[in-house]
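Example complex used in Figure S2.
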Amino acid sequence: MKITKGNILDDVLNEMNSDEFLNEYWPNHFLHNKGSIERFFSVPGIENISSLENILKIYKNPVMVVGDAIIEETGGILNKFLVPPEEAMSWYEKGAALEFDFTDIFIPELRESISKLKSLLGLPEGTMAKAVLYAAKESAGFSAHFDAYCNFIFQLKGKKKWKLAENFNTINPLQHYELIEAPHLPDPLKSYWNGEFPDENLSNGTELILDAGSFLFLPRGCWHSTSSSEETIALNFTFGQPAWLDLILIELRNRLIQKDEWRELVNIDLLDENERKKVEEKLKSMINNLPNDFKGISVGDILARKKDDLDVYQSTQLVVRQLMSIKDGF
Ligand SMILES: [Fe+2]
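Predicted assembly (330 residues):
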């Protein structure tokens, strides 16, 4: 019988309770908590993950294969691609790391656990949440990057070395970034980027060794890289980090969508100069009217948007993944 102390965090954290975590670490400070792996099995769904072979039987979706083996295969063009689950093991043997995105589609108990953790963390209802399982062999890992999501990581097998470093370049990043792309920065990130890039080894950072039974909370934006010298399996619970910006943009769109002129086709490039001028004048008056359109937006209006879908990209990914798994049912 499973012994539970209360909520998921109370069950998983060793010698710490959920209040301490929520007050001192969430949402900005990483936490590495070691203990017996047994405590993870109090989280419904985790006991279904016993081995890589077992996961490959359950997971009826393409598997992402990642790492040097893929770079070699594609002549340096790609570092990851999707393969059918039956081919995943041969890529694993060649040294690729395997990423099982949306594992919770195939283990519904996990979805339930993630949803409980989401409300425990006080995240808006419309926040993206999913489980991702990683399996890797010797030396396979991820180079330095940061994510726009936060992760709760359960190390289920093997030893993995993590390097973490505080992100002095961006506060509250809204997108993922790979250090290997430096000095190139995508435009939105460039607009709020500060200072020099860290070195690729994150040598000013902290080194952590996760082994079976290690739990890691990785906040959004924290620089990190991983490597392993043995076979590892880790389960991640990943949560989007909706910003006020997301809520206000939904509200603004919802207001403008009611106006016929804002739904008009962008039809300007084929017009002659005279017609083009007319369209520009009309657009100018629409812009000038924005303060009226947005008048009276209240805090309540914005907070009501917490229930909206706050990550359309991931929701689409989920639907695609679900559709891909349906075919195996026929
Ligand atoms: Fe990451």
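The chain has a mean pLDDT of 92. The first strand starts at residue 31 and ends at 33.
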